[in-house]
Design a protein that fits this description.
The complex is a heterodimer of chains A (372) and B (692). Chain A is an all-alpha fold and 372 residues long. Chain A has a two-stranded antiparallel sheet with strand order 1-2. In chain A, β1 and β2 form a beta hairpin. Chain B is elongated. Chain B starts with 6 loop residues before the first helix and ends in a 6-residue tail after the last helix. Classes of the chains: A mainly alpha (372), B alpha+beta (692). At the A-B interface, α6, α9, α11 and α12 of A face α1 and α2 of B.
């Protein structure tokens, strides 16, 4: 604990990630200030407060010892799974689909917790799996069950975006665990066959329409294609340096839907231009690169997989959201980490960050030679 | 697995795979950066334009419509600033809720609310639907503050058409209204669907649409996605339409319309020097002011149920047997065929033609041509017409304008019938008979003419010149080919007409009471249908039409006039007094108006006031249960129906063998009742073909 180069507790904080994150959240608060029409209290204040609270949470998390985490992995997973079932049950009894549990103080979305949860349980599973078994069905089947249950429950809600995030996090963790590449090839082939079937029989109408609209946004300029079209207009009209702070007509005149949540990047890009967009991409690049570095330098298999999975979970948010606002992906309700206004996504992402900081600590303790 | 998997090889695989994942992430990052660069730099111009077209809304400002002026520059149709409210149906979030709230704020009655519902239902998409206009500022403000809850509702300051004399000019000027889907189809410009824009729907408003319209102004505003205006960017002023100056004398037009009172009548006044029309009146009439914002159901019911046919422009489209007003014309025809005006005919109270006795309205004794006009002696004209033949009379009638169509803007005219042998053969496949000649020579039988034609005839007789009527001030029509009458021949007709009013003639009671100005005229009473009872009593619809043609001053004619009072009984009773008062108004307006205001007190006020009272009564009685108003097409159809009904009634009248002249009732002996077949209503509609 006392092995840091500078004995000041502040200096020992993981600034390599906290600094870029603070910049990103601060930039996010600035954009939200503009999106609220020049009001600090509407979105920005709560955005900053949440970040402060969740940074503390992440720092507390980073103190957890490795043993606890590995032991707690299955119980945590089980608890989240139970919560998911609970949500389903309450929805069924209450006669309407719902995604959250009202715990009185906060509305908890168990599906959000499952994003880091699935990575945790799979990392624990592959840690426990003997190395020789990795090419075996025993490496695949239990993992498929661990992944399939929550994904299925979330799909039932229905919440396609979150289900995809869970599956993506789980699959990448399995990939990193060393599952033979040909299985992924086979899986991809199976997915290619299953996708059209799922598209026509599995998706709801509104989800199908979103895909159609994504393929041809101009076909429905006032309906669901409206979001994509307006977002592209916002980004495109921003140009290289943007229209200037507080000058975005698309967001201020309500053409851009959800300018403070899902489309916050478009709101930003309109006022800050390509310059602001590259800055955001750069910061995300720094954070994700740090995550992968943590993963590669992690002391053991469990922490390696855990760190890798957490990193790609954040990556998934960023990639899907940015692809969506730039018209490269259909509209799915996935916010941009650290910039979009909203407590749930901030919580999930900060859990990922906290986990990564925790693993970084573990590697510093067990491999003191490495530079912190 | 062929080779043993160890912890070490797994660690190596992890390193490889994290590299793959890292590379994929980096790759996607680059892709996103490139994509953003493409959108923001390469397509920047396109998206900037689209953002601009989102942000900036160009709203057209309907141009102020050109005024319609009378000959003295007094407005007949002008504009007044007002506050109005329209709805864009496509932007309505909750139509029923919006109507409910608007109705409450605007204090609509149930029938007005129902009208609004109807208009909304009939509207198409972005075409604005008028809700109300002429609002005061408080009401306008009350709606404006509720706008955030009322998407699709557009309050505007603008101009609305204003007709100071309302119903007096309805038929002449027409009215304006919002463009229909069909009109937009014909002329696809955005102005037509701009809220508040009105175009001419009828009469001169329609005819001079392009002159009156003007250039729309434009207003660039910044709007939110929901259409709320954030701020004005810039504006371009509209260019008012050109004004149109008419030969009409607005004051006279109004006087004539109001002098008609409770009657159903048409009046045409012409300038005997230029042919300019000073008044072209048909009453009763709708109020064009209230038509501009769509016709309410109560008003619609009122108009449709009125047996005085307010939707028919009787001055141009009403056809009536001219009766004895033909006699001055006939006297000219007789003279050019060698009849001496001094020759006397003995009137024993009728005329024997073969086995049939045509009765005159009195025993006039020995009359010459002047006396025959003065006393309206049918016997004289029958015997003379029998001598020269009717075929000598018809061409003169046409030469004087009867049965002719004139080149006038506005509603299409119907030109009626001046029958002759060829026409009858073509129309009914029957030979022309001597009794047809007798009927036609006194303006009965097949003869039907419009009030406009009667006025033209009178102006030509009075001036001796081939005047053509005109409506646009400063553009009199050149004279037609010279008339074939000598001044002496005309003087005989003038003398006769002078004596009708100033001698012991039929209209002696309608002598002008203004100094030394004297009027000459001729009464006419036209039988409506074959009657067994007298045509001056009984059911209104069965009574005779009352006609009067006149000109003044007699020594140097300035004004010629025709008055037709539907079912007004004797010419001298209904039409002549109206003509006298209108003529008085031309020379001594103060006196004429004073008399009129006295009369109006007994009629229940001005036409506008009377319509309002009637409206209130209807509204109280029917409320919103009155049938709804159809589209413009339905209004058009109703007008056509009014036209057709009128034509059918006229035809029935003109097809009786009406061997009567002035207020005479003679029953033909049964054996000789060889009336032409009564045409079916379908034929009746086509009866109004050219005289020949």
């Amino acid at each position: 604990m006392a092995r840091g180069l500078i004995p000041d507790p502040i200096a020992r904080l993981p600034w390599r990630v906290l600094l870029p994150l603070t910049i990103l959240v601060g930039f996010g608060a600035t954009v939200l200030y503009s999106a609220a029409g020049g009001s600090f209290r509407t979105y920005s204040l709560s955005h900053l407060i949440r970040f402060g609270v969740f940074v503390v949470m992440a720092l507390v998390m980073s103190r957890f010892p490795r043993n606890w985490v590995q032991i707690a992995a299955y119980p945590i997973y089980g608890a989240i799974l139970l919560l998911l079932v609970g949500v389903e049950a309450i929805g069924a009894i209450g006669g309407g689909a719902q995604r959250w549990l009202d715990l009185g103080i906060i509305r908890l979305q168990p599906s959000e917790l499952m994003k880091p949860g699935i990575v945790l349980v799979l990392a624990a599973f592959y840690q426990g799996l003997p190395a020789g078994q990795i090419g075996n069905w025993r490496a695949l089947l239990p993992a498929a069950v661990l992944l399939g249950l929550p994904a299925g429950l979330v799909l039932l809600q229905p919440d396609l975006g979150t289900a995809m995030a869970i599956v993506f996090g789980g699959l990448v963790t399995m990939f990193l665990a060393g599952i033979p590449a040909k299985w992924f090839g086979g899986g991809a082939l199976a997915a290619a066959i299953a996708a059209p079937i799922a598209f026509f029989f599995g998706l709801r109408d509104y989800q199908r329409n979103r895909v159609y609209t994504f393929l041809d946004p101009e076909s429905d300029p006032l309906g669901t294609g409206y979001h994509i079209t307006q977002s592209k207009i916002a980004i495109g009209s921003g140009g290289i340096f943007g229209k200037g702070f507080g000058q975005g007509s698309q967001s201020h005149l309500d053409y851009l839907p959800e300018p403070h949540t899902d489309f916050v990047f478009a709101t930003m890009a309109e006022e800050w231009g390509l310059f602001g967009g590259l800055l955001v991409l750069l910061v995300f690049g720094i954070v994700l690169r740090w995550g992968l570095m943590v993963s590669r330098q992690a002391p053991d298999r469990f922490s390696q997989l855990l760190a890798g999975g957490m990193t790609v979970t954040i990556f998934f948010y960023v990639a899907i959201n940015l692809s969506m606002v730039m018209g490269l992906a259909p509209v799915v309700g996935i916010p941009l980490p650290f910039m979009s206004h909203g407590g749930t996504s901030m919580m999930t992402n900060m859990i990922c960050i906290g986990t990564l900081m925790m693993i970084e600590r573990w590697s510093q303790r067990e491999a003191p030679r490495r530079f912190g | 697995m062929r080779h043993r998997i160890t912890t070490t090889s797994l660690a190596q695989s992890f390193d490889r795979r994290t590299f793959v994942v890292g590379a994929a992430q980096g790759g996607l990052g680059l892709l996103l950066a490139a994509r953003m660069g493409y959108i923001a730099v390469a397509e920047n111009e396109k998206y900037e334009m689209e953002a601009e077209s989102n942000r900036v809304n160009l709203t057209l400002v309907p141009p102020r419509r050109g005024w319609i002026l009378d000959r003295n520059g007094q407005p007949i149709a002008s504009n007044r600033a007002d506050f109005r409210i329209d709805i864009i149906p496509k932007r309505l979030a909750d139509p029923d809720g919006t109507i409910r709230e608007l109705s409450a704020v605007l204090k609509f009655s149930s029938d007005q609310t129902q009208d609004l519902h109807d208009r909304l239902k009939a509207a198409a998409g972005f075409q604005p639907v008028p809700v109300a206009d002429g609002l005061d500022y408080e009401t306008f403000a009350a709606v404006s503050v509720r706008l955030p809850d009322l998407p699709g509702v557009i309050p505007q300051r603008g101009f609305s058409r204003f007709y100071p004399t309302g119903p007096s000019v309805g038929h002449l000027i027409g009215y304006v209204g919002a463009a229909t889907a069909k009109e937009y189809e014909n002329e696809k410009i955005p102005l037509l669907v701009t809220p508040g824009f009105k175009l001419g729907k009828d009469g001169l408003e329609k005819q001079f649409e392009q002159e009156l319209r003007g250039e729309p102004g434009a207003r660039r505003v910044e709007v939110t996605a929901s259409g709320r205006i954030v701020r004005d960017l810039d504006t371009r002023e509209d260019v008012q339409g050109h004004s149109v100056k008419l030969t009409i004398d607005a004051q006279l037009q109004d006087f004539a319309a109001r002098r008609i009172g409770l009657e159903s009548a048409a009046v045409v006044v012409m300038d005997c020097q230029t042919g300019g029309i000073l008044a072209l009146v048909s009453m009763p009439c709708f109020d064009p002011n209230s038509f501009a914002d769509g016709i309410g159901r109560i008003e619609w019911k009122m108009l449709n149920e009125d047996d005085h046919i307010p939707l028919l422009n009787k001055a141009l489209r009403g056809l009536y047997p001219p009766g004895s007003t033909m006699k001055p014309m006939a006297s000219l025809a007789l003279q050019i065929h060698g009849v001496s005006p001094d020759e006397h005919v003995f009137c024993p109270g009728g005329y024997q033609l073969g086995r049939r006795f045509f009765r005159c309205d009195a025993r006039h004794g020995s009359v010459d041509m002047r006396g025959a006009i003065e006393h309206s002696c049918n016997t004289y004209f029958w015997s003379m017409a029998h001598r020269v033949g009717y075929d000598a009379i018809a061409p003169v009638a046409k030469q004087l304008g009867l049965g002719q169509e004139f080149d006038l803007p506005g509603a299409a005219q119907r030109y009626g019938t001046i029958p002759d042998a060829a026409w009858k053969m073509r129309r009914y496949h029957q030979e022309w008979t001597a009794s047809d000649s007798l009927n036609a020579s006194i303006g009965q039988g097949y003869v039907s003419v419009s009030p406009l034609q009667l006025a033209v005839m009178t102006s030509r007789i009075a001036s001796g010149r081939n005047l053509l009527p005109s409506l646009i001030f400063g553009h009199p029509k050149p004279l037609g080919p010279a008339l074939a009458f000598t001044p002496e021949q005309l003087a005989v007709a003038h003398d006769g007409m002078f004596r009708v009013v100033n001698g012991s003639g039929t209209a002696a009671g309608s002598k002008l009471q203004i100094g030394d100005i004297q009027m000459a005229g001729k009464t006419g009473t036209a039988q409506v249908r074959r009657l067994t009872s007298r045509g001056s009593v009984g059911e209104w619809k069965a009574r005779d039409h009352s006609l009067f043609v006149c000109y003044a001053p007699t020594d140097e004619p300035r004004y010629a006039m025709s008055v037709v009072v539907e079912h007004g009984t004797f010419g001298a009773r209904a039409a002549a007094p109206i003509a006298r008062d209108i003529m008085t108004c031309l020379f001594d307006p103060t006196k004429a108006w004073a008399d009129l205001l006295m009369m109006e007190k007994t009629w229940g006020g001005t036409p506008t006031e009377r319509m309002q009272a009637k409206y209130d009564a209807f509204a109280a009685r029917y409320g919103s249960s009155a049938p709804k108003v159809g589209s413009d097409a339905a209004v058009e159809a109703a007008k056509t129906r009014a036209d057709a009904d009128h034509a059918a009634a006229e035809t029935n009248g003109s097809n009786t063998d009406a061997e009567r002249g002035e207020a005479n009732l003679s029953s033909p002996t049964p054996a000789q009742t060889t009336a032409p077949p009564v045409p079916t209503p379908a034929e009746a509609g086509t009866l109004a073909e050219p005289g020949n």
